[in-house]
Prior knowledge:
The protein is built from 4 helices and 17 strands. The protein is an alpha+beta fold. The protein has 3 domains: 9-65; 100-147; 171-307, no CATH class. A 5-stranded antiparallel beta sheet has the order 4-3-2-1-5, with no helix packed on it.
Amino acid sequence: MTAFSKGMKVMFGRPNGEKTLGEVIKVNPKKVKVKQLEARGGYPIGTPWSVPPSMLTEVTAPSMLTEVTGQVTPKAAPAPVMTPKAATAPATFVPVPGMRVEFTSTKRGKGIIQGTVKSVNKKSVTLVDTSDGHPVGWRVHPDSLRPVVGAAAAPVAPTHTAPKGVRVGAPVTYEGMVWRARSGSEASGHKKGPITGVITAVNMARGEVEVYSSKNLWGANIIAFKDLAVAAKRTESDILDDFSAVYAHLEPEMLHADGERPRAQVARLRAELNRALRALTTEIGRTVNETEAYDHGTKQRDAARAAK
């Protein structure tokens, strides 16, 4: 094996990899420290490397090394190979529901997949009726989509006019499933009835709102504009009832259903509850912390027990 010494010119690199000219600057017991003398990948000249001796070759032949005024002349960097970029959709392309689009998948060699836009989300686009027959569909980043050439133009999204007063944080009334206590011969249970809650989100494209109420069986409901009515201002006690329920459902045991709820469902429920908190804060006009909501819930339960 060659005995390397400081100042020796060497070629370093893996046996089947790129070889680079360098100069030994230090010899350690197990590795040799080499200063890079020519371009190597994205590393500039002068970059130090710790190289095993087995990957070093001494430069001895004049043809291997050309010196000009004592400086090593680096090899010319190879000319960059220009590869044509894949065709992409114009920057102005914006997918809308109902549009036929396509994208290139790298999963298991699926190639180009076409589908119909179901919904445009914050960071992705949901596709259904895809050409690969996926039973659920795909969620794809908008930048990866392009319109299908020759496909029918996407239908114009319908426009809806929201009733006066419909906005996030406004109280509304609709018919839903409410808990009814036992009354006479009538058994207790969930039955249809009017529910007053707070709007947590408005979807003008679909003409509907998301409404949260602790009195509703499923928490938040999606209600069409035609099926709701703007309600009178709710009492602070009613709003605090909803705050108490939201904070209770945000507790880890409730939110995760003791570990039984899938992560995707947990994420959707957490987002729904956080929207409810923001809407309730708008409705009441101030911040209500968890302690205040818990104390209110305790007082309400104590009062209910005392009334029995």
